[in-house]
Amino acid sequence: MSPLENSFGSTEVTPAERQSRIRSVFTAVAPRYDLMNDLMSFGIHRLWKRDMASAIATPGGGLAVDLAGGTGDVARLLARDPRRQVWVCDPSVAMMRAGRSRENVGDDKIGWIGGEAEALPFADATLDLITISFGMRNATKPELALREAWRVLKPGGRFVCLEFSRPVFWLKPFYDLYSRLVIPRLGAAVAQQPDAYHYLIESIRRFPDQREFAAMISAAGFRDVVWRNLSFGIACLHSGVRP
Ligand SMILES: C[S@@+](CC[C@H](N)C(=O)[O-])C[C@H]1O[C@@H](n2cnc3c(N)ncnc32)[C@H](O)[C@@H]1O
To answer: Residue 117 C-alpha to ligand 1 middle, in angstroms?
Structure first.
């Protein structure tokens, strides 16, 4: 199957069409995105994000960008370190607007900027840390997104990715059932967007598994690439360092 014969149905679409459909998905779900995340994952996504933030140590703080930062969950965790300057970068104005409307404590320390992972609006070798949580599978060209992350990180800078992955074998049947039966229904009932949540499930299914994604990070030029399963592989934390 062609990689472009994608999550929006069986029709083959161009990368530009795919990109514009992903944009529409996030515009549509933005107002209810945070609520849906809590319902779908029973709030566990918050623990995963905390795990991600606590796994990150950037001595001296420095400049951190949360790519595909959406409503700003991860950026808020990163901004708890007062030495760190934090930006959310996301192509969806609707998602960023939904996040900013929550007016959380500490939001005044976060900058928000429009941009796609495949063409980052940052100069070469300027960032100390890049995070991306549940965003990499939306990149139409993940290899290019990884090369971009490498380009904008300083030597010694760290790339950290939290993404859905492949659960262990005994969990898979239950997980598949839950994904196919419960999530689209929740998407219909709560967000009134069943198609958007079909996209979510399909994009998870198509994303490379733990080992494949680690190999892609290495191929983009990162070293010290490691990964750790969260919740038996439902999600996975990958990281790498720009030499
Ligand atoms: C599932 S949300 C994740 C939001 C947030 N990081 C979180 O963990 O809650 C995916 C985000 O990816 C963004 N996105 C879609 N295409 C993208 C791209 N090509 N580059 C960067 N971000 C993208 C969407 O706008 C959306 O905000």
So the answer is: 9
What's the pLDDT band for 2 if we cut at 50, 70, 90?
very low
Which among 127, 132, 93, 131 is positioned nearest to 113, based on CA atoms? 93
* Rounded-to-integer distance, Cα 7 and Cα 86, Å: 32
Q: Does residue 77 line the site of ligand 1, with CB under 6 A? A: no
Question: 3-state DSSP call for residue 153?
Answer: strand
Distance 12 CA to ligand 1 centre (A): 22
Q: Is the CB of 148 under 6 A from ligand 1?
A: no
Tell me how far apart the alpha carbons of residues 213 and 143 are, in angstroms, rounded to a whole number. Answer: 10
**For the whole model, what pTM was predicted?**
0.92
Q: Is residue 21 part of a domain?
A: yes
Residue minimizing CA distance to atom 14 of ligand 1: 68
Look up the domain containing 60 and give its range: 15-241
Name the residue at shortest CA distance from atom 16 of ligand 1: 138
Classify the C-alpha dihedral 141-142-147-148 as positive or negative: positive
* Residue in 134, 163, 203 to alter for ligand 1 test, most ligand atoms within 8 A of Cβ: 134
pLDDT, tens only, 154-205:
999 999 999 999 999 999 999 999 988 888 888 888 878 888 888 888 899 9
Is residue 9 a part of any domain in this protein? no
- Find the CATH number of the domain harbouring 73: 3.40.50.150
Provide the domain count of the chain: 1
How do residues 26-65 score in pLDDT, each as one tens digit? 998 898 888 888 998 899 999 999 999 988 866 567 999 9
Which of ligand 1's atoms lies nearest the C-alpha of 95? 27
